[in-house]
Amino acid sequence: MELFSPIPLDEWRETKETLHRFTQVVGKVRLAASVRRNHWWNVPFHLTGRGLTTRPMGLVDGNPVFTVDLDLVDHRLVVTVADGRTASFPLPGHSVASFHRQTLETLAALGIRVELPFPRPYRLPDADRPFAEDVEHATYDPVLANRAWQVLGQVALVLEEFSARFSGKASPVHFFWHSFDLAHTRFSGRALDRTAPADPVTREAYSRELISFGFWFGDADLGEPAFYSYTAPEPEQLAGDPLAPAAARWVEAGGSHLAVLRYAEAREEADPRAAVLAFYEAAYRAGAVRAGWDVDLLACPGGITDPEWPTPPP
Question: At the top level of its lineage, which domain of life is listed (predicted)?
Fold first, then answer.
């Protein structure tokens, strides 16, 4: 299988916009039925060998323990209860409205009752339109949806390799359904000044100094897939620091800067995987050094913190 298969945004824009909203419907189920974690880490999806999963949830809200999976191989939504019961329905052929209705009906058939908080898109152009009224987004191409999942799986493994190099507080490699991106975040441990006004979601997400890394498929601002990194709060003169590989650059975004390596440019490198790792490492060191992190103390060579740990046998 080709590493980093081509997936230009224009080729699958309609499927992406529909699938994005499907994930938001399921994501709001997860938001309602899971225990809150710091930085909203309870909310994202994780990758599986077939697609995306909410992970187990329920119990604390009176529901049985259950998961909701988006199977992007057989293209079905699958609800599984811990007692072994399961129910599913196909993803193709649905508008957002019918997907929303079918999801709630499938949960109810298994004895699961979930009240969705704000049952409408989050931070999307149609954020004022309830899911139940969206018959516009109804395109689902199984081939393109599967290719997107394959790309996410490959990128996730690169991010896992990169995340192993850090011994401090760090997030899992997880998929945020609100922005439809794969991300991993490192923290210095320093709390931030909270006097600046911000909405509750942003306040919790950025309550600590961090450097984040990820991949997204493109949006209205950057109309193509790209690997990215940003430091928050952004240190002075960060955007003047060099990045790797040569194709990477700093891009202004909302008054701050993103380090960006476009997906198409990474694919052109002799070793795309090494190029992406080099990009994340360069962006991390730029932000960490500028922000005064102890880079050596937080390093974790080979994913090992014990310097006396023996080399595994061959």
Answer: Bacteria
Among 172-181, 287-296, 303-312, which is the least confidently predicted range?
Answer: 303-312
What six digits make up the tokens of 41?
A: 């880490």
Predicted pLDDT of residue 1: 60
Residue 263 inside a domain? The answer is yes
Q: Kindly state whether residue 307 falls inside one of the protein's structural domains.
A: no
Determine the pLDDT at residue 8: 95
Q: Is the dihedral of CA 103, 108, 114, 115 positive or negative?
A: positive
Q: Encoding tokens for residue 260?
A: 């960006």
254-269 average pLDDT score: 94
**C-alpha separations of 265 from 5, 248, 272, 277, 304 in Å:** 12, 8, 9, 14, 32
Instruction: Kindly state the average pLDDT of the residues 206-220.
Output: 89
Rounded Cα distance, 281 and 245, in Å: 10
Q: Both 117 and 40 in a single domain?
A: yes
Q: Containing domain of residue 42, as a range?
A: 9-133
Residue 86 makes CB contacts below 8 A (sequence gap 6+) with 78, 79, 80
Provide the 3-class DSSP secondary structure of residue 262: strand
